[in-house]
Amino acid sequence: MNKKTKLLAASLTALALFVGTRSNAQSIEKGKLRFGIGLDGLAPVGNFTKTANFGLGLTPRLQYGISNRFALTFTSGIYHFFPKDIYLNSGTQTYKTQWELNVVPVKVGFKAFVTQHIYLGAEGGIGFQVDNGGGDSKYLFSPSVGYASKNWDFSLRYENFSGNGYRNGVIGARIAYGFGL
What we know:
CATH class: Mainly Beta
Number of helices: 1
Radius of gyration: 18 Å
Number of strands: 11
Number of domains: 1
CATH architecture: Beta Barrel
Structural class: mainly beta
C-alpha cells in the first residue's frame, strides 16, 4: 500500500474509534439475521490505475448478530471494472486492447460496533475472475468503517486483491438497503 492509502485507512479507523465514547443499543440484534443488497463504487489505487478507470459492484450481504455489538457477515456479488485503452507495440504496428475484469467476491467477515451506528469491519475471502476464460482467483482482504441504521448501511473500505504474483487494490464505497429476516 502506498502512503496515501495507509493514511486514509488510519484516518478512517481513528475517526470510527473516537466518534463515540459509549455504547448503546446497536443496529444489530443478537441471534437475528439481516439481508442487505448494496451498490459499490470502486476506485483503483496503485498499479491498478494503469489498467482500470473505475469499477461498480452489486453485493448482497447476509449478517448474523452474535451479540448486540458484533455481527458475522457473508458477502458475495459481482464487481465489474471499466478498462482503460492500452496500446501495445508489435514491431511496426500498434494494437489497441482493453483489459477486462469481472470478479465474483466470496467473503466472510465481521462488524464490531463502536457506537450505536458506527462500526469497524473486516472481510476476507476469494475473488473469482469470470471473464477472459475465467479460472483465475485472488485472495481478498478488506478492512472497513461504516454507518448502519435500521435499513441503511454506508461504508468505506480498502480492498486488496492478491495472488499469482498479482497485488492491487481499490477504495470502495458501499450503499446498501437491508432488512431483518
